[in-house]
Amino acid sequence: MTFEEAKRAVEISFKPQLPDTEVTVLLEAYNRVLGIDVVAPQDMPGSNTATVQGYALNAKDTATASEDNPVALKVCGTIAVGETSQVSLLGGEAIEVSVGAVLPQGADTVIAAQDGEREDDTLQVYGEVFSGENMHQAGSDIQKGAVVLRRGQVLGSAEIGVLAALGFMEVTVLRMPMVAVFSVGAEIGELGKPLPAGKVFDAAAYSVYTAIMECGAKPVCLGVVAEDKLAITQMLKTATAVADMVVVCSSVDITEIADTVDKPGIVVNGVAIKPGRQTAVSFIGEKPVFILPSNPSAALLVFQLFARSLVQRLGGRPVVGLKTVMAYAGSKMFSAKGSRSYGLVELKFDENCRLIADPLQTTGAVSALVNAEGFVEIPENEQHIEADQEVAVRLFRGSAGKS
């Protein structure tokens, strides 16, 4: 089955439902998906405010002001930022204001301090000042009743700041999807337990676990299962009962077992990609089960290729792919005949400040996780990528390049 055929087979059976909503405190809402439209409960700013240090006044009082015939206004007080005043300006009056101060009743403009001349309680104005100058009008930023944030938006630092500015301590968000993760393999040992000779710790599941978190879902680690049909069947039933999706990192073929738990069963059994030829996908009811390699870097790569977008859609998120950068191949990269190949690369800048993608030379499963910064795709119809050829590198992490 080709890569595109496998993606289509998964898409036919995948029927995500919009998640339920829940309320969370604002300080825990980062990277959550907004569950409702947010409507401004009040104007922002809530009052007319000064944008300069100076004097609030009524523009009509300066209509006749000129250099030769200045207008004298009586300064009747001071308003600092954060304060309010009960004073209502009368004709011929002004009040001193700080930047950000709320303007008093009767004031419709602000003159900067340097544009007037004050002596004791008298302000001389030497030119006409127009209504609305040097001030923010109430509601000029956000009007009461306006939709400020839309349902489905992902809440980042800017959105959290907006919600705080509007006075929200809590926010309605979409429920995070649950994704169960477990491993199958006689050679896989669980963290926290002594590691017998010939076994390796469960790096693949932990890498995938974290990738699930990066997609905005809540992973559930179910540990390591023995190579036993009954045990694997029971774990698949448990996983689909507690989660919306299941990811299995397995060093043995469990497709026959996954196919018999419930209908429709296996929809993908092997994909013409390298690494990850043994990748399989089953549906237990409407819940997808991804069966990935046990090699950590291969499991992480295949998860990004096949499962990432589904996890995002389960959570009502916009589908966001891995960040891609353009680089130049550091050496020739070869494909596997008849398969779409993915080559792990490490990135560095050369003496000409070009970003170079060097094929990863290590054969170690763990060191590949450390050194691989991304991967390059070689299509089925291409035999190789030439050295110095420009290539698109999809990044495992958010930044690229070593000095």
Task: Describe the protein in words.
- The chain is of the alpha/beta class.
- It has four domains: 3-15 and 176-314, MoaB/Mog-like domain (Molybdenum Cofactor Biosythetic Enzyme, Chain A, 3-Layer(aba) Sandwich); 21-43 and 143-174, Alpha-Beta Complex (Molybdopterin biosynthesis moea protein, domain 2); 49-136, Molybdopterin biosynthesis moeA protein, domain 3, CATH 2.170.190; 324-395, Beta Barrel (Beta-clip).
- The chain has helices spanning 3-13, 157-165, 203-214, 229-242, 255-261, 296-314, 365-371, and strands at residues 21-25, 38-39, 49-50, 54-57, 71-79, 93-97, 109-112, 116-119, 122-125, 135-136, 147-149, 170-174, 178-184, 188-189, 200-201, 218-225, 245-250, 264-269, 273-274, 280-284, 287-292, 324-329, 333-334, 340-349, 355-359, 374-378, 384-385, 390-395.
- It has a six-stranded mixed β-sheet, with no helix packed on it. Strands 16-13-17-21-20-18 form a six-stranded mixed β-sheet, sandwiched between helices. A five-stranded mixed beta barrel has the order 22-25-24-26-28.
- β8 and β9 form a beta hairpin.
The general outline is elongated
CATH class of the largest domain: Alpha Beta
For the record, give the distance between the C-alpha atoms at the N and C termini, rounded to a whole number: 41 Å
CATH topology of the largest domain: Molybdenum Cofactor Biosythetic Enzyme, Chain A
Rg over CA atoms: 32 Å
Structural class: alpha/beta
Give the name of the CATH superfamily of the largest domain. Answer: MoaB/Mog-like domain
How many discrete structural domains? 4
